[in-house]
Amino acid sequence: MDIDTFRDYCLAKKAVTEHLPFDPETLVFKVMGKMFALVSLDAVPLRVNLKCDPERALELREEYDGKIIAGYHMNKQHWNTMILDGEIPSQLIFELTDHSYHLIVNSLTKKQKKEFDQL
Questions:
Q1: Which of 43, 107, 30, 102 has the alpha carbon at shortest distance from 72?
Q2: Residues 22-65: pLDDT tens digits?
Q3: What is the pLDDT of residues 81-111, one digit of tens each?
Q4: CA-based nearest residue to 15, from 32, 39, 36
Q5: What is the pLDDT of residue 66?
Q6: Helix, strand, or coil here: 84?
Q7: Which GO molecular-function terms appear in the entry (predicted)?
Q8: Are 105 and 119 in contact (CB under 8 A)?
Q9: Which domains does the chain have, with CATH numbers?
């Protein structure tokens, strides 16, 4: 998967914005101001960090050994880094992106959820 496909997929989601808060090589996608995906733009192959349920994160790391690893520079329990070199199916990348997005949406405060629902 390339950056354009991943970026378009993220930006098509409700209330998503993109930022470069850390440096010009780290693209961050946020929903209602909270991160759900980070992309290392200068990495070859492309690397994406996504939030994940801790138990599922461990299962994915075992199943995709060396392709899905503990989140680089992130909380290793809650974040995975995916190496997008063609070995992880696109459908799984989209599914895990949705999972990360929904984890964040479900963690919004009541006030944020109300704002989100009104968008």
A1: 43
A2: 999 999 999 999 999 999 999 999 999 999 999 999 999 999 99
A3: 999 999 999 999 999 999 999 999 999 999 9
A4: 32
A5: 95
A6: strand
A7: DNA binding
A8: no
A9: 3-105 (3.90.1150.30)
Q: How many residues does the chain have?
A: 119
Block residue for tokens 């290392």:
40
CA–centroid distance for 80 within its chain = 8
DSSP annotation of 115: H
Amino acid in position 9: Y
Whether 106 and 68 have beta carbons less than 8 Å apart is answered as no
pTM for this entry: 0.94
Beta partners for 69? Answer: 81
Instruction: Report how far residue 92's alpha carbon sits from residue 85's, in angstroms, rounded to the nearest whole number.
Output: 13
Question: Residue type for 93, please?
Answer: I
Q: To the nearest 10°, the Cα dihedral for 73, 79, 84, 86?
A: 150
What pLDDT sits at residue 72?
A: 81
Distance spanning both ends of the chain, measured CA to CA: 29
